[in-house]
Amino acid sequence: MLLAGGFAVLGYPVEVLLLASAGVAGGVARRLGYDWRAMEAGVVQSLAKAMPAILVLITVGALIGTWIAAGTIPMLIYYGLELISPSLFLVTACIMCSIVSLFTGTSWGTVGTVGVALIGVAGGLGVPMGAAAGAVISGAYFGDKLSPFSDTTNLAPVVAGANLFDHIRWMLWTTLPAWTLGLGVYLVAGLGSEAVATPDIEPLQRALADSFSFHPLLLTPLLVILWFAITKRPTIPGILQPTGSLIPERTESA
What we know:
The protein is mainly α. Helices cover 77% and strands 0% of the residues. The chain has one domain. The N and C termini lie far apart (49 Å).
């Protein structure tokens, strides 16, 4: 009631309402006989379970910044403008983000890296931004939800006392049909947008080429993350490895 009424009706900040809700919950717990030490232990235990997800959010921010500064995302935009057809862009974007997110286990990381590149490609090809963002987010969350490397996918069965792969298998019953239906919608929408003229992408490509030095080594971060995922290594070290190696040297122009 505090969240719904305070935010939707009164427009109060969510953070303040969450603290107020916690105060109410603490009062109820005290009335039920729990002292502060018991409540504190419960808070610490809950934070410990959520900490992997928090650490992923922190490291993804560094990952996005370094991929942009080093030229990895601009390089994906540059060649994506040449390879992706406007009519098949939505389907291609959804499938690509699904694969990357499934291997990496992070929807935020996928949206912030490959997703940013695809949005740049969509702008160059004249694809509507809303539809492009929808395809990117759909693919990213589909892969994240079914990835055995995802923090939330691991957190849910831990809290419920279930097996990880049983959890993933049962989620397929709802996730796969929705994803397939989405692909069909993206395909129909893309094929039906032939009237949209493809803009001249040469100025955008020239600007990217003038600002960055493209080299196959710029794809190394993506390969490193995929290798960590395929070999079932921890997600956070996999994110930090290419992040640290791609920090550009400081220059006067920078």
